[in-house]
# Entry
Amino acid sequence: MTETTTTTRPAPKSAVILTPSAEARIAELMSKAPEGAIGVKLSTPRRGCSGLAYSVDYVTEEAKFDEKIVTPGGVFYIDGASVLYLIGSTMEWREDDFTAGFVFENPNAKGACGCGESFMV
# Structure
């Protein structure tokens, strides 16, 4: 009689860790989303002094290589072309008397512009 061994792989980790405040903001955005929006998507388009910027927008369809993170308040996507720039990052929503926005702690960023709008890897 042979013994079979079953191995289970750990659940894959997301490229970006969403803090509770980021998840709450995604839920708020989805509660006001335009018709047809299926989630919120993070991408890193080329712009700014340092080359790449963070962009969060509504998305109306899933793209083949996007990473999908299901949160209690809605679906969060990471642009497939941006994943390598974002692995290990934390995304948080911060708000105070003067500013509000998503803040990223990105271990891949090697520098940022003075205004904080863009980064380089």
